[in-house]
Amino acid sequence: MSPKVQLVHKTECGIGEGPHWDDLTNTLLYVDIPASLVYRWDPVTSQLKSCVVKDRSVGAVVPRKKGGLVVAAGHRFAFLDETTGEMETIQECNKEFPHSRFNDGKCDPAGRFWAGTMGLEQKPAHPRPKEGSLYCLDNDHSVKKTVSPVDISNGLSWSHDKRTMYYCDTLRFTIDAYDYDITTGNISNMREVCHFDRNTDGFPDGHAIDVDGNLWVAMFSTSLILKLDPRTGQKLETIKVSDTALKTTSVCFGGPNLDELYVTSARNSPLMDGEDLSGALFKITELGTKGYPANVYEG
């Protein structure tokens, strides 16, 4: 079995991020950060809907168990009305750095919403240094800062036994592991899982975990998806997504059997000659594995 890469939708996102498979509706949620858009794609009808978020950017979106959506946008966690784009602020974060924004985020197995910040980019992959942190929005709507300082807060995944959290601060060029306490949401005992080479691998970005315990990591600037075993640090497989969509940003498992890997990307600047697929949404099938149902916000 050989993985197959398909173009799903040429959305041309400035920075596509945070894909999330919504099991209740069997649709895919993802965002365009600079355009401040939340997208919802229906694979049955091929219909792509968008919602303009009334903030200067939106870094991540997740469904709420009680209904509706929750976003990490600008400097705030907020409930989002998908129909109108109206937001109800829950908490504001990282205000000590006015030139910063939320980036990637995901819910943990207890339904807390974790999302991190970064300084605004001065040029591609060069944000204002050490102006980011990783935050956790608990189910009682309180927020705690968990990792700080960071450069570009990115991918999050949790092991199936709920004892380990995997996290990526992109400019460390590592995936790091933490002991994770599902009862409190506390993390401890940081250690490096895998180190990446900037020139051959690219910049580690968003990631997802499969039922075998392996991570699938989107590598920004190389259009690669790397499969690695976080227990050994071994890189097991490399998949090239596109010749032009070089800035692969994040991944999630979706589809009826959770065996399809959706990949977001960011737009090239300047655009490449010919048909430039940067910013598009892709799907990889025939991976020989599948993921878990995505966690939703329980608060």
UniProtKB/TrEMBL annotation:
This is Regucalcin. It holds the Pfam family SGL. It catalyses: D-glucono-1,5-lactone + H2O = D-gluconate + H(+). Keywords: Calcium, Cytoplasm, Hydrolase, Metal-binding. It is found in: Cytoplasm. Coiled coil: none annotated. InterPro entries: 6-blade_b-propeller_TolB-like (IPR011042), Regucalcin (IPR008367), SGL (IPR013658), SMP-30 (IPR005511). The keyword Cell division does not apply. Its EC number is 3.1.1.17. Residues 15-267 form the SMP-30/Gluconolactonase/LRE-like region domain. Its cofactor is Mn(2+); Zn(2+); Mg(2+); Ca(2+). Belongs to the SMP-30/CGR1 family.
